[in-house]
Amino acid sequence: MSTHSPLHWRRQIKNVMAHCFSLISASIGIFFLTWILFTLFDKGLQGLNLDVFRQMTPPPGATGGLLNAIVGSILMTSVAIIFGIPVGVTIALYLSEFGRNNLFSQFTRFINDVLLSAPSVILGLFVYEMYVTQVGHFSGWAGAIVLGLISIPIITRTSDSVLALVPSHMKEAAAALGAPHWKIILRVVLPVAKTGILTGVILATARISGETAPLLFTALNNQFWSLNMNKPLASLPIVIFQYAMSPYNDWHQLAWTGALILTLFVLSLNICVRLMFRQKIVLH
């Protein structure tokens, strides 16, 4: 085709327009993201000190920190991940090794995708109705359960995708040596896919660590120091929400600082995921 033909110039014009539109869209997204991060660091760093990590959440007009909220979030997130890993990985193993493409596995993948995109507040209401109303009080266990339910679809989806990439010849070689299916899964499939599964666990941790709405219906909050998972438990997202909505300037500062801590935590987890993927690509 001649470079001077009208069709060639129309294609060039469309290509330039699409390129410019992509650059403008990306620039707008980066601009607002940079603005948000700059504001967060500018306001959050003003209240970042050692007291934040060694004092409890204060009443209005008093000095304090976020220790009980940070510890409460760590407790509930840890229990949720411990609960979500075996369930999510087991579901993924069934889908990739046993269910294959039968009708039940397709239905399971569909339900998992629905849960993956479902608003977390719906899961919070579900746990509130099924657990909180039955025991008669809010608790850290209820918060951990709802966070675990949120993490399961993420771990399942990621693990299922990674397990599908395990080379079939490795499993066939193990089977040819007389290894039973369960041993092939333990000695071949899981070791090969462990990096991808761990990536899904990290992504799930980053997702549930910032959840607020479901914890309002389950763990509620606790202004004091508590490690009792059977009682209302403080969490960093809830404290950020409540303090940001309050009329007190000192609480606003703690909310900004808590948001900065939470953002740095999630950012570090995402960096870990990137590094793990990069290492996996380099190794291959």
Question: Can you characterise this structure?
Answer:
- This protein is mainly alpha-helical and 284 residues long.
- The chain has two domains: 6-47; 51-283, Orthogonal Bundle (MetI-like fold), CATH 1.10.3720.10.
- The protein has eleven helices and no strands.
- The protein has helices at residues 6-44, 50-54, 67-99, 103-117, 120-135, 140-163, 168-176, 181-208, 213-216, 236-244, 249-283.
- It is globular and about 70 Å long.
CATH C-level class of the largest domain is: Mainly Alpha
In N-to-C order, the SSE pattern is HHHHHHHHHHH
How many strand elements? 0
Specify the structural class.
mainly alpha
Envelope shape: globular
| Beta-strand share of residues | under 5%
CATH topology of the largest domain: MetI-like fold
Radius of gyration: 24 Å
Mean pLDDT, to the nearest integer, reads 90
The DSSP helix count reads 11
CATH architecture of the largest domain: Orthogonal Bundle
Characterize the main sheet: none
Low-confidence runs of at least 5 consecutive residues:
none
How much helix, percentage-wise, in residues? over 70%
CATH homologous superfamily classification of the largest domain: MetI-like
How widely separated are the two ends? 41 Å
Keywords for this structure?
about 280 residues, MetI-like fold
